[in-house]
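Let's practice the habit of predicting before peeking. Look at the sequence and jot down your guess about where helices and strands might fall. Then scroll down.
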Amino acid sequence: MIRRIATLFASAALLGACHDSPNVPNFNAVSAEALQGALTPSSAQLLVTGLLNQYRNTAIGNHIVFPETMARDAVRIDKAETRYLTELIGPTQPDNGAFTGSGDFTGYFIGIRTANTLIDAAKAATDASGLDAAARSALVGLGQTVKALNYWNVMEMRDSIGMPIDLDHDINAPPAPWVCKQNVLAYVSALLDSGATALAAGGSAFPVTLPSGYTTVAGTPAGFAKFNRAIKAKVELYRGLSREGGTGAAGFNAAVAALGQSFMQTSDLSPSGLALGVYENYSTAAGETQNSLVDAALHLNQAVGDSIQPGDLRAVKIVKAAAPYSISTAGATVVTQYDYEFSLGSTSLTHPLPIMKNEELLLLRAQAAIELNDLATATQFLNFVRVNSGGLAPYATFTSQAAARNALLYEKRYSLLMEGPQRLLDLRAYSRLNATNFRPGTSNSPFPGDVFTSALPIPVNEVNARGGAPALTCS
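Done guessing? Here is the structure:
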């Protein structure tokens, strides 16, 4: 993780034909030192473009396929690469030296370093740079928010294994301490608060242009602050649910407060109103990023299609194939006849992926209410989604947390299908990733020796760099 931006993909219009000129700086490898006190509107644009593009390239693919497989929603049937099954839902744990156990990790740390470069440069700049105090504050807030999002995504997949957080040091410094989950989440929460404060002082407009998927909700500092609060709500909810030093009711109340400051809304529950959010956009243009979920080997678990309630409009996401797909490996046969709608066809190569959308925020609000035992509010918010997204009859007011949680897990499964690790996080939080809930030897869990992997291990390169597995550091 070098102290520079790694692989900034600026557009041809930004870089032009001068990329190889010896007289023009290479902004694809801008060092933090070179930018101290020298940030300009053009270099700020390159930094932000690189930061958001790095995140787009990281938070897709395995960050969806791995956890959705572990949560028994997806199966990738590839006879040339069976570890998607054998190590994620099968009889062995993911190998920390293989693409499974070491995957979905390094890209986020590149993003964190890129965010640090932007933040440090914006803080060091002066009015003479062409960026006034408000513009610099907006850039700091954007950087801190995306930095926190990268940390959060690592925690989604590593959970109680923890991660390093003290990363803003020289390349020759010793490896950062390995920090336990509760301390990481506390740090992420505080970082989001710092980002929100900086965005509040960021003026009416960013001094840079953001990707189109951000602009509807987060195209201004004030809008980005609402996106920041949406992330904060999610972090606080799972801090409350955590089995490792969880914050309980304090976390759930913090999530409710953050949702009130986010872009969550109930005035428009049409499909467009539920879809309101911040998105990653994809393109088939030369040099651009395509939606990597378009994958002929990627399918939905048989239980996903079999378990959806009759009449649920979200069944449009589930396509039944003409014939079953199957593979035999590690003493089991995996069979499914269902595909995910957006894994098929060339038009899906440009299908946008939500980072956060209103439909998820409504479900998070219901979840916080359930955990606070406010079952009337929980019913109301679950029905906002169930009726308007699912087209189903509303729930009667719940009389128990257990019944409300069951309903929540159903609604989140189909509203957020193949959009991220949400299902895995909930199965972990409610202790449902086990043989009681997923009977081994069934379509849910086809391997009789299922070990129910709930998190990925520390990558072998990290272990080697530290001379052995790191000890968790907790305050």
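How did you do? The chain has two domains: 12-289+350-465, 298-349.
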